[in-house]
Design a protein that fits this description.
The structure holds 2 protein chains of 2 kinds. Chain A is mainly alpha-helical. Chain A contains 11 helices and no strands. The radius of gyration of chain B is 35 Å and the shape is elongated. By secondary structure, chain B is α+β, with helices and mostly antiparallel strands. Chain B starts with a helix and ends in a 7-residue tail after the last strand. Chain B has helices at about 5-15, 20-30, 35-50, 65-70, 80-100, 160-170, 185-195; strands spanning about 105, 115-120, 130-135, 140-145, 205, 215-220.
Chain lengths: ~210, ~230
């Protein structure tokens, strides 16, 4: 399966999801902490991996990620929606990671990379990947499980989720390609992700237990 | 999860729910664990599909819960503009309090002499100030009028205030613990009513009981009060 076409590309849905992010941010600003929990659950993987490109130790990276979310929460007063929330959040995460390294007297491992690029997760793709032996092994395992899960999916689900996640097409574009309503596309992608989640669940639990 | 909820969740994830529908979905996500778990799972699998082919870090189980716990003691943020607006209104309210809320509470005792004076100032930042002169009287209490009107000219004195002053002078006699004045005062009261009914004005001279240390204030004819 071609995994290169959409690689490093911000899914189009991520940009349109910015509207929902802004709605949640406004709720947080009104005092609804549960709304921030939704933002944490949405961005935890992305922020952790962004931080992980600076802070190599997984446990440290997770601590810095938590610190970044807390800083973001405290700073939400100053967020006015001039930029997308995730851009703003990534900037806080990168600064948190750099500060963490500086506080420990360690040099930022990505000094040869334009720091501005790291503020966008797309730019961070050009930073060193998580290439420890464990990371490589886990990547291979995840790839294998995902490929197996994709192959087991009905064709309409597989095509929909592939066009979305690997090719980066919008729901409208997928609807045109598949000649079906957008609602049907959404349903297919949702069910495909659920099916993949079931296949990946044992692997993810195993990884968590080995920590 | 039914098809409609699933469709709305996906639309919300994609930022394609508008207005009330988006607010409803946000509320449901905040309150329904099953929906919130689904939100988290959909985002995690999406991330893994896009980036899982190489080494990725996975948040440990319960990461979001731990962040939530860490934030439990935090005060909810709010936009700076709203905070500034709130302080502006506090300032306006305080200014209004200076003009309106200065109140004097006076208690009269048998001797008509103040036994203690209490002055309460509601914090250095607040101009609210309440003056009270308390006298031993077994619990009887009269609220007179704002202290700013003490000694004010008759033209600045309200009709209601004058009526209260008059009733205190005519009906309630300090130190006697009785609510009705003597025969002379009763006649004066009736005379005042008769004059008021006739549409005329009557000059009445009122005075504060001895011991209060207040100068007598006279209200002449033409002040519009009976």
């Amino acid at each position: 399966m071609n995994r290169t076409a959409g690689r490093g590309q911000q899914p189009k849905g991520e940009d349109s999801g910015a509207r929902s992010d802004l709605l949640l941010v406004q709720r947080v600003q009104k005092g609804e902490k549960q709304a921030f929990d939704l933002l944490v659950r949405k961005y935890q993987s992305r922020v952790l991996n962004l931080v992980g490109r600076f802070v190599r130790d997984p446990e440290e990276a997770e601590d810095v990620t938590q610190e970044a979310f807390i800083k973001a929460y405290r700073a939400l007063r100053s967020f006015r929606g001039d930029s997308a929330f995730y851009t703003w959040l990534y900037r806080i995460a990168v600064n948190s990671a750099k500060n963490h390294l500086a506080a420990q007297g360690r040099q930022v491992a990505t000094s040869d990379i334009d720091a501005q690029d790291a503020e966008q997760f797309e730019g961070a793709e050009r930073l060193r990947e998580y290439d420890t032996p464990e990371g490589i092994l886990l990547g291979k395992e995840i790839t294998r499980h995902i490929d197996e899960a994709l192959q087991a999916l009905p064709e309409d689900l597989r095509v929909a989720v592939t066009l979305r996640e690997l090719e980066g097409l919008s729901y409208d574009e997928i609807a045109q390609v598949m000649e079906c309503p957008v609602g049907t596309v959404r349903s297919r992608i949702f069910r495909a992700r659920e099916a993949i989640a079931k296949v990946l669940a044992p692997l993810l639990e195993q990884v968590d237990h080995e920590r | 999860m039914n098809d409609e909820t699933r469709d709305r969740l996906m639309a919300f994830m994609d930022g394609e729910l508008d207005g009330l529908a988006a607010q409803r979905m946000a509320t449901r996500l905040q309150t329904e664990k099953e929906l919130r778990d689904s939100w988290e799972s959909q985002h995690r699998i999406s991330f893994l599909l896009q980036h899982g082919h190489r080494g990725v870090l996975l948040p440990s189980a319960g990461f979001a819960d731990r962040v939530q716990q860490a934030l439990a003691a935090e005060v909810a943020p709010e936009p700076a503009a709203r905070a500034a607006g709130r302080f502006r209104w506090i300032g306006i309210s305080s200014a209004a309090a200076v003009a309106v809320l200065t109140v004097s509470v006076v208690l009269f005792g048998p001797a008509g002499t103040p036994t203690r004076a209490v002055q309460v100032q509601a914090g250095a930042a607040s101009p609210l100030r309440v003056s009270a002169v308390m006298l031993p009287l077994g619990g009887d209490r009269f609220i007179l009028r704002p202290v700013r009107l003490f000694g004010a000219s008759p033209s600045q004195t309200s009709e209601a205030d004058l009526l209260i002053q008059r009733d205190i002078q005519r009906i309630w006699v300090p130190g006697q613990r009785r609510l009705l004045a003597g025969e002379a005062q009763r006649q004066e009261l009736q005379g005042g009513r008769a004059a008021a009914q006739a549409g005329g004005l009557r000059a009445v001279r009122y005075g504060y009981p001895a011991g209060l240390g207040l100068q007598q204030t006279g209200y002449g004819a033409g002040n519009g009060n009976p």
